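Input.
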Amino acid sequence: MPVPLPDRPTRTLPAQSPGVYPIALEGAFVLAGEALIIRPIRPSDEAAVADFFSRLTPEDIRFRFFSALKQLPPKLLFRLTHIDYLAEMAFIAERANGDILGVARLVRDPDVTAGEYAVAIRPDMKGHGLANHLMGRVLDWGRAQGLTHAHALILADNGPMIAFARKLGGRLKRDPHDSTVVRAEMALLADA
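Output.
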């Protein structure tokens, strides 16, 4: 049964973003009795993404960005929020007040048949199915775009993400050039 979207202010997409904002991909998800907004990321999300980042643990940051960042550099923040909706997708889960609780992203590889995925969930929101929902949405987007495979690069000591990749159906391989990295690969289509 569809969940109604909570009331929220209307926002417009600045002209510098490539592609047209895919409003049809907006939806909702109920988490612990609270209706969350699930939607593609927008350029106007910069401040909310910076706040989301500030709520991640140092370990979450290292696992997601392969680095111990104290804050998102402005160029990276811009890159994460100003996306080409034809080449990549990032779904966010947000409360009606704009607080971001999680992000899942899929970036199309240059060969256009595969893409790299990543997910980050606020520490206080883990274990409630939000990562599953966001990844399901972003992988469905990939399938609709004709992607046949998806992969993730995961630090070898990131046990939770390795387990999650396996749960998604990923096959794991050690990176032959970097023993600290594991590559998870999955087919997005049954015949791929």
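The domain at 23-187 is CATH 3.40.630.30 (Aminopeptidase).
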